[in-house]
Amino acid sequence: MKSSLRALLIGTAVIASAQLASASLSYDLAPISFNSLTGSADNYPTLSFAKFDTAGGTYTLTGVSLDWSVVSAISSVTVKNESAGSVTINAFDLGRTFTAAQGADSLLYDVQGKRQTFSSTVLTTGQQKTISNINFTTLSTGAMDVYGSFAAYTGSGNVDVTLYNGFSATPLVTASGGQDLSWLTTVSGSAHGTLGVTYSYELTPIPEPGSLLALGCLVGSGAFLRMRRRA
Question: Over the chain, what is the mean pLDDT?
Fold first, then answer.
C-alpha cells in the first residue's frame, strides 16, 4: 500500500510540473536618414513594448531575449580642419555603433568599422575634405539574453528601450606639426532594421481532477485498512 501511494504521488507531481513556453514580439525599425555634424547620431526614438503578463501569478517569467537585424550605410563624410595649423590626412576611420538600453542596463552592443583610404591631402585651417559614394554598409545581426531580475519586464504597461545608432568618421593624420587637432565632421547615411523580443515562461497547471480523485480514494483506502487492523 505504501508503494502504491508513493507511485501515485510521484505521478501527480509530474502532472503538476512546470511547462516551458515562449511568446515573441517583433518591431520594425523605420528607415531613417541621418546627417550629423558631431560624427554620431541618435537616430531611433525610444521603443516601447508590452510587459509580460503573469495572469495573476499563473505564469512565471524565466527569460528575456532580444534579437536584432540592422542595416546601416554611410554614404558620405566631410571633415573640416579647425586646428590652428595645417594637417595631412590620408584616410577616414569609419565607425557604426548600435546599442539598446533599458534604464541603466545595456542590452545590446555592436560595433563595426572600416578604413576609407584616399590620396594624401593637406588641409589648412578652415579647409575641408569630402568623400562621397562611400561603400560602408553594415549588417548587424545577433541575439542577447537579459540576465538578472525580470521585474522591469513583468506586470502591466510597457518596457521602454532606448535605441542608439551612432556613426563616426575620424581622420587618419600623418602630419600635424604636434598641434592640438580639432575637427568638424559631417556624416550622412541611412539605416533600417528589426528588433525582436522573446519572453520565456513557465506554466504550472492545476493537477488533473482524475489524479486528485484517485489520490483521495487511495488515501481513504489506506485509512480504512488501518481502522480494520485496529479493530
Answer: 79
